[in-house]
Each structure stands twice: as C-alpha cells, then as structure tokens.
Amino acid sequence: MAAPTSLSQLSGAILCSATPRPRKLDPKATKSPDPFGSFASSSSSGVGAKTPLARSPLLVDKEREASERKEEVNRKVASKKAISIILRREATKAVIEKKRGTNSKKLLPQTLLEALHERITALRWESALKVFDLLHEQIWYRPNSGIYIKLIVMLGKCKQPEKALELFQAMADEGCIINHESYTALLSAYSRSGLFDKAFLLLDAMKKTPGCYPDVYTYSVLIKSCLQFFKFDQVQALLADMEAHGTKPNTITYNTLVDAYGKAGRFAEMEATLSVMLQGQDCNPDVWTMNATLRAFGGSGQIETMESCYEKFQNAGINPNIKTFNILLDSYGKAQHYDKMSSVMEHMQKYYFSWTLVTYNVVIDAFGRAGDLEQMEYLFRLMRSDRIKPNCVTLCSLVRAYGRAGAVDKIKSVLRLIDNSDIMLDTVFFNCLIDAYGRNGCLTEMREVLEMMERRGCKPDKVTYSTMIKAYASKGIRDRVKEIQDMFQTEQGNMMVGG
Questions:
Q1: Distance between CA atoms of 492 and 499, rounded to whole angstroms?
Q2: Which tens digits make up the pLDDT trace of 31-76?
Q3: Engineered SS bond to 218: which of 163, 214, 482, 485, CB 3.0-4.6 Å?
C-alpha cells in the first residue's frame, strides 16, 4: 500500500522535531568505561599507591565516609535479598534463617517500606500483602493509617474488595483512626468492582459516623465508578444528594463527568456539564477539561468541532500540555490529516515539548496505518535511541502494520525483541498477532500464539477465538473451525463455573 503524498510533510516535521541531540563526549575520556568498575577503582586509589607519605586528615575522613556509605549500601542489599528470600520461601522461617543467616524480624525499615511501595505502585497485590505481613513482624513496627489506606486503594484497583474489607477491619482492630479517608478507600474498592449496593451502604454509614461524613472526593469517587458502569441515573441521584447536603461538586467532579459522557458519546450531557462549569464561579474549566473535550470530539471524528473547542479553551486562557498535543496528533492521524499532524509537531518543537511514549505510539500508529513501514521503523528506532521503552501499544501498531503489508518475517523480529526485554504483554497484543498471522495464511504460527499466551499467563478471549475461526474458515478448514468453537465453549463454561 502506497503512503499518502501528504505524509511527506509529516516526515519532514518528524526529522525536525524528534531527532535526538548527539551526546557530548568527554574529551578527557580516552577509552570506554569498564562496566565492572575496575577502571574507576584503579583511578580512585592512585594517590595512595604512588606515595608513601602519611595520609591527610581530610583523606582519612573521606575514606571513613566512603566506608560508611558502602556499609549502608551493603545492609540495604542484604535486606532486599532477605525480603526476596522470605517471599519465595517454601520451608519454615527457622530453616531459612539458619540456612541463609536472615532474621526476618530485623529488616531495614527503609528497604522494607520501599519494597512495599514498589509492589503497591505496580498493583502486585499478593506480593504487597506478603511484604505487609513481614512489616508486621518487625520489632520497630507501629500501626500506620496511611499504609493501610494505600493498600486498600490498591486492592480496590485490583478488584479485591473483600481483601480490602479485611484490611479495613484489621486497621480498626489495631487502633488506627477510622476517618472519611479510610471509608472512602473501602467504598472505592466496592464501587470499582460494581458492588454498588455495598458502596451505597458505606456512604450511608459515613453520614451516620462522627468525623467520617463524605466529602466531595468521596462523592467524586462513587460518581466515577457509576459512570464506568454506565449507571447514569445513579450519577444524577448522587449529584442531587450532594446538593441536598451542601457538598458542592468541584472541577475534578465535573471533569470526571465530561470525560465519561464524552467516551460514551453522550455529547448533549457533556456540553451541558461544560455549561454548568462556565456559569459557576468555583469550578472553572482547566486543561483536564479541555483534554477530555478534545478527546471526545476528536475520537469520534468530529475534527472541526474539536478544533473549534481548542480555540475557545485557548481564548479562555487555558494553555495546552503534552497530553493535549498527543490527543490532537491521535485525532488527526486517525482522520488521515497528516498535514495537520505536521503542524502540531512543528508547534511542539517551537515550544520545546518533548516527545513521550504516547507521542511516539500515536505517530508510529499513523505511519503504520498508512502503510509507510520505512518511516514507522525509523520512528521506532528513534524512540529507542531516545531511551523510551516501548509498550504493548507500540508492539500492536508494529504487528498490525506488518500484518497488513504481508511482512511476516518482520513480525518475527518483533517477537525476538520481546524475548530480549521485560515488556508486559496482554491479550490485546496476542490478538493482533493472531490476526496478522491469520490474514497472511500462517496458520501454524497462528496456532502457536495460543501456546505463547499460556506461557505468558494471558487468557484468550472472545476476540482471540473469533479471529482464529475467521482465519480457518477463509481457508475452508472446517475441522479446525469446529475445534476452536469447542475450545471457546469450554472456556465459557469454565468461566461460568468459576464465577
């Protein structure tokens, strides 16, 4: 497929705006640094090796500081290893402590808290709870409401409301203060899982508990969950309840409404919400409001309306950020307005907006859709030279483009990249891979993707099976079609039993 001629302008803009600056070389460096640090260690000890004179007090102090820093680093490393060993243990603690010399009750506070924070941030809830158990065992441990709340919020994001309730109860049992923040965290856990009956019961309980009355953040959390489950009637009821109890919505509340209405294609409600914001004095629109509005119109192909809104927000004194430009680039790219994409990139260069992962993903996808594999690959190399790690979205764009162009060999290069990286893959990526192989008649490779999914812990979904059925049916292989249909029915049955 030949790329549209207007892509040439876009290519020029990329060369101007995305080319990384060359690294400045140190003129004193005559050879590459030793990756194992031997070059650095020899240079640091050169003075002492060449002269027998007594060392100065300043040098002695520096050596003492270096020794103390090294000892502190060693303690942290040992503590991290201890956490890793304890989390992986299969034998009793006594055996581990005897074998490894590790005392699980004397781990460094900073290291243990960092390990807990890392797991909470990564939403690794099972591992986070194990680290929290270790935290309880420490002789220096004291109950902390903040840690409990962070864990409850994480469990809510991971759709583990019952575990969140257990922590909420443990929090109370340990004597931590239960306030509106902890109640809101638990309410969020239930509402994120669609358990609105329990969420609304908690809301009523908050109203009756001294010091725990729901605030605007509590209502905003519940409103957001209702919108995600398309319970628009309950949203209006919550807004009325807020007004009745004197709790005014803030900009975040209205931004949540604008974003959800836009994604659902309910443009009348979205524009009505914007009008309320403009008429009020306490809830002025901000850049988040602008981005949600532009995303709604741009994502639905209403380019002129998007541009009109962008101009109005700018006239109101709201300045764009990098997310704004990414939204504009994505909207123009999907509408094949490559000249306008070029203008956006030139504007980004003029005002020093650095490209992000999302920016690269958007432009890579645009060239991939246009069939310009050369420019797409150039951008991918540029992305990696810019030290930006690709993600599943990047890989999906590459695989889709190669599949459309019939470049099956290049799909294998993507798989080799994955084997040498720690990129987290999801079902969407594997579905793209199955589609690419299927449309090119590579049915053996397509079938092998199922094995890859199993090894990676990704479960096939309806799209996986329907894509495979379509590929086999196009080749008239009826027995394979029946086999995949049976696999899908079995999987559906297992899901119903598990549910």
A1: 10
A2: 333 322 322 333 333 333 333 334 445 555 556 666 666 666 555 5
A3: 214
Q: What values do phi and psi take at 440, rounded to 5?
A: -105, 10
Q: Are 342 and 10 in contact (CB under 8 A)?
A: yes
Residues 6+ apart with CB under 8 A from 382: 14, 18, 19, 20, 360
Q: What is the pLDDT of residue 20?
A: 44
- Show the DSSP H helices in 31-144 as ranges: 38-44, 46-50, 57-88, 93-100, 109-121, 125-137
SS (HEC) of 232-285: HHHHHHHHHHHHHCCCCCCHHHHHHHHHHHHHCCCHHHHHHHHHHHHHCCCCCC
User: How many residues are given for the chain?
Assistant: 499
* Longest distance between any two alpha carbons in the chain, whole Å: 88
Q: How far is CA 54 from CA 42, 83, 246, 422, in A?
A: 20, 43, 77, 51
Tens-place pLDDT, residues 101-120: 445 566 778 888 899 999 99
- DSSP-assigned letters across all residues of 467-478: HHHHHHHHTT-H
Q: What is the distance between the alpha carbons of residues 170 and 173, in angstroms, rounded to a whole number?
A: 5
d(CA 386, CA 299): 28
Residue 465 vs residues 430, 438, 461, 462: alpha-carbon distances, Å: 11, 12, 7, 5
Q: Are 342 and 330 in contact (CB under 8 A)?
A: no
| 396 Cα distance to chain centroid | 16
User: Is the Cα dihedral 371, 374, 375, 379 positive or negative?
Assistant: positive
As a whole number, mean pLDDT of residues 363-385 equals 95
